[in-house]
Each structure stands twice: as structure tokens, then as C-alpha cells.
Amino acid sequence: NLFMDHQDEQDIEIEALESIYSEELEIISRKPYVFLIRVKGSNADTRDEHKVTISIQLQFNFVETYPETAPLIQVTNCSDEMTEERINSLQAFLEKKAEENLGAVMIFTLVSEAQERLLDFIQDIKKDIQLEKDRIALEQERLDEIKYKGTPVTMENFLAWKIQFDEEMRIIGKRKTELLEKNRKLTGKQLFERDSSLIDSDILFINDQGIKVDESLFQDLDDLELEDED
């Protein structure tokens, strides 16, 4: 009986798989056979700088005529590293391998092929990580160079700087002048106290101009000075 031969082959293969993948295999159904095998790829035990681990589940559905007919294969429960593109690639890869192995038990072969494929993906991921690391390092180097050298001087940014600099200098100069004028500015009384000769010079100037001066306006000046000194 051909069906019984297929069933016997399936039973024997499942028994062997349960022994090989004692922790990774989960039987969902036995008639027909539907089961899951957890598959992992990792470079954690290597000296690689970038450690990557990928995990997936392979679901196999046996049809009555397996292994003369390929099992249904589904890639599920994938880790984040498995992009949709990688999942589709692995799915197509395993289906092709199944067609190549028709007529013989093939699950162990397909799982082994899947593990090898995951290691290939890890190499791709490592390259992506290194490329990103190099990109970040190059960008940091560029920023450091700009910081070290400063902004290149052009006529445009020099003129902008010059205008700003001149305005700042004008404001500073104005403030200094106002401060000096404030410090130097004296009241009339202070001027008389500092230099009484200013009075005489002003009187002489007025006389030279033919202006009549009432000198009595200044007669009490000495008294004022004495009172101030007290």
C-alpha cells in the first residue's frame, strides 16, 4: 500500500526528528503531521566584534504523499533582524530545496540549510553594522575638522562680521565717551574751587569785548569760598 509506505516513512522521520531536536521541535498535529522547529543562527561563540543572533520557527505540514510531494513550509516567529525581504528570501530558498529533495526524507536537510542561511544573514547584518559605524565615525571626523578649522572665510561672511564688529566698537566707544564726560563734568561752583583763575580770564574776555561788567556781583566770592571750607 503506497499510502502506508508514505505514512511509515513519515512516522520514522518524525521519530528521528524528535530525537535530534528534542528541545526545538513541537508537534502540533500527527494526522497529518504539522510541527514546528525552532532554528537559531549566532556568531556569539566567535571572535567577531559584532555579536548577532537570529531566531526563527519553521512550520512544516506533511501532505499524504510526502516525501514524494514537498511539505508545506512557513517561516514564522522571526527575530527583529529578519526583515521581510530576508523572510521571503528564506521561504523561497527552502521551497526550492524541498523540490530538489523530492522522494527522500528532507526535514533535517531543510533545517540545516536554514541554519546556514541564517549565518549568511548574520554576515550581511555585520556588514551593515560596520558600514553604519564607519559612517558615524566619518561624520564625527568631519564635524571635528570643522570645529578645529572654523568656518571658512568668504567675502560675504567677512563683511557681515565687519559690520557687526564696527557697530559693537561704536557702541563701546560711545559708552566710554559718555562715562568720561560724566566724570569730567563739574558744577560751576566746583570749577571756581578748582581754578579761580577762570574767573579772571572770563572777566578779561568780557572787557576785551567792550562789555560793561558789574564787579559787585563777585564781591562776595571770597566769603563764599571761606564758608564752603568751613
Automatic annotation (TrEMBL):
Residues 12-121 form the RWD domain. It holds the Pfam family DFRP_C. GO terms for biological process: cellular response to stress; positive regulation of metabolic process; regulation of gene expression; regulation of protein metabolic process. InterPro entries: GIR2-like (IPR040213), RWD_dom (IPR006575), UBQ-conjugating_enzyme/RWD (IPR016135), ZC3H15/TMA46_C (IPR032378). SMART domains: RWD (SM00591). Coiled coil: none annotated. This is RWD domain-containing protein 1. It comes from Hydra vulgaris (Hydra). The lineage of its organism: Eukaryota, Metazoa, Cnidaria, Hydrozoa, Hydroidolina.
